[in-house]
Design brief:
The structure holds two protein chains of two kinds. Chain A is an alpha+beta fold. Chain A has helices at about 1-15, 60-65; strands at about 20, 25-30, 35-40, 45-50, 50-60. Chain A has a three-stranded antiparallel beta sheet with strand order 1-2-5. Chain A is extended. By secondary structure, chain B is of the alpha+beta class. Helices cover about 50% and strands about 15% of the residues of chain B. Chain B contains 15 helices and nine strands. Chain B has helices at about 5-20, 20-45, 85-95, 110-115, 125-135, 140-155, 155-175, 185-200, 210-230, 235-245, 250-255, 270-290, 300-310, 335-340, 350-355; strands spanning about 5, 45-50, 50-60, 60-65, 70-75, 80-85, 105, 315-325, 370-375. In chain B, the strands form three sheets. Chain B has a three-stranded antiparallel beta sheet. A two-stranded antiparallel ribbon of chain B has the order 4-5. In chain B, strand 4 (about 60-65) and strand 5 form a beta hairpin. In chain B, helix 1 packs across helix 2, helix 6 crosses helix 7 (about 155-175) and helix 6 (about 140-155) packs parallel to helix 11. The chains are: A alpha+beta, B alpha+beta. Chains A and B meet through helix 1, strand 1, strand 2, strand 3 and strand 4 of A and strand 1, helix 1, helix 2, strand 3 and strand 6 of B. Strand 4 of chain A pairs antiparallel with strand 7 of chain B, so a sheet runs across the interface.
Chain lengths: ~70, ~375
């Protein structure tokens, strides 16, 4: 049943929907643009492709809980 | 897509999936997340397979500026929660971009176009799914297809994603009408589709290249290649190496994308790294150049400071009053005074905010520096 919950969250995130849980926080999907990296050792320039990442923003309630308030 | 899903919505889908009451699903979800947050509080870390890892991270006091008054204040230390998604989740979410790989940029390619680009436009999921379907059938060709579409447009990779969209929007429409041969189209036809689509829809973005210019660039590219080949023909050994490298082929494609300007690549990113390195070096040299500032009392002061300087781990302090005053003399600087008075450089931010210095790097000779009495928390 717990794995179902995780599956449901994953499905929503793959649909680019944010998932907000009250008292906990929101899971968001963000787009990262491609970027040029320079390897400082070899001075080689690399091109990193764009990607989608998952980010989590804790709620104010959660943040307070963690700080002992 | 692009909407926000709430706990209730999750409960709904969970209830329908598992054939239980919606209230039960809601209760389960609530308990689920409460367990996670309790775990974070207790153990500082909570790892959930399939989802990711939540960690509790301690943050130190940090000096900052009050946005209204402009005076320096201290943001107190606190804890924050970090989340790192699991591999499965990452891969699932990144599916539309799964084919992309990091590549090495060759010398001479221009990246100026990239810096001008701002927000990646919202990707139409349905259309992108069509893309992945098309790319899966001829897998070897698939990657080539994406890159060739870019070549046609002559635009940076990010724009290329948008292009892939447009390419398959047309086949999508045709599919509805029943023409199923479209998804198996070879590369050349898709490129011509793009060209015709562009003329019909009249897209007017300034960085699109007309077919005539494209032909010119293509010819120019080959001429440059031939000239380079003949110039380098003295070193046959090197050329063999060049051709035998297996991963050179895909990189050639990227060359065509950026061939429009043969200007030196924008080194602003390198500049950032060099600046940060320079700052690190400056910090070190500043501590070292304490010695060369010769004054009459130099010998006495150097003995003092060499004894007292110890790098403590950053502790949190409280200001419990004032313990004295120091006047800036020629050759003094704030950091030196802080080290002498407190034995640690960590107190600097507290001294700065206590005195409300606007520019701690530039405190003139003769200024009275109030020394707060600091108590460890």
């Amino acid at each position: 049943m717990a794995s179902d919950v995780i599956c449901a969250i994953t499905d929503e995130l793959t649909d680019e929907n944010a998932v907000g849980i009250t008292g906990f926080g929101t899971f968001e999907v963000k787009k990262k643009l491609e970027r040029v990296l320079v390897n400082p050792a070899t001075k080689q320039r690399m091109l990193v492709p764009p990607k989608m990442v998952v980010s989590f923003k804790p709620n104010t309630g959660m943040k307070g809980k963690v700080n002992g308030k | 897509m692009d909407g926000k899903v709430s706990l209730q919505d999750l409960a709904q889908s969970l209830a329908s999936k598992r054939n239980i009451q919606r209230k039960e699903a809601e209760a389960f979800l609530k308990a689920f997340f409460e367990t996670i947050s309790d775990g974070i509080l207790q153990d500082k870390i909570a790892k959930i397979k399939g989802l990711g890892t939540f960690k509790m991270i301690e943050v130190q006091d940090r000096e900052s500026v009050n946005v209204n008054t402009g005076e320096r204040i201290i943001i107190p230390g606190h804890s924050k929660i970090s989340f790192t998604p699991d591999t499965e989740l990452k891969e699932q979410v990144n599916k539309p971009f799964a084919f992309f790989q990091t590549v090495v940029i060759n010398e001479g390619t221009s990246i100026e176009d990239m810096e001008k680009f701002e927000e990646l436009p919202s990707v139409d999921r349905l259309v992108v799914h069509d893309t992945s379907e098309v790319l899966e059938t001829p897998t070897g060709q698939g990657v080539q297809e994406v890159l060739d579409v870019q070549e046609v447009q002559g635009v940076q990779e990010v724009q290329g994603v948008q292009e892939v969209q447009e390419v398959h929007e047309v086949p999508g429409v045709q599919e509805v009408q029943g023409a199923h041969e479209v998804p198996v189209e070879p590369e050349e036809e898709i490129i011509s589709t793009v060209n015709s689509q562009r003329s019909t829809t009249e897209v007017h973005n300034w960085w699109y290249i007309s077919p005539a210019m494209l032909a010119l660039l293509f010819a120019f590219f080959w001429i440059v290649l031939l000239i380079g080949y003949f110039i380098g023909s003295n070193n046959w050994g090197n050329i063999d190496e060049f051709f035998n490298k297996p991963d050179q082929v895909p990189i050639v494609e990227i060359d065509t994308v950026y061939i429009e300007k043969t200007v030196e690549p924008d080194s602003s990113y390198i500049q950032v790294i060099e600046d940060s390195l320079r700052n690190v070096i400056l910090e070190e040299s500043r501590i070292k150049t304490e010695q060369p500032k010769t004054t009459a009392n130099q010998t006495v002061k150097t003995v003092q400071s060499s004894v007292e300087v110890k790098k403590k781990s950053p502790l949190a302090y409280e200001i419990v009053g004032q313990k004295g005053v120091r006047t800036i003399k020629w050759g003094d600087y704030l950091l030196k005074i802080v080290r002498e008075e407190y034995g640690t450089e960590d107190a600097l931010k507290y001294v700065v905010s206590y005195n409300k210095f606007t520019d701690p790097n530039n405190v003139p000779v003769g200024t009275e520096v109030k020394l707060p009495r600091l108590k460890e928390k």
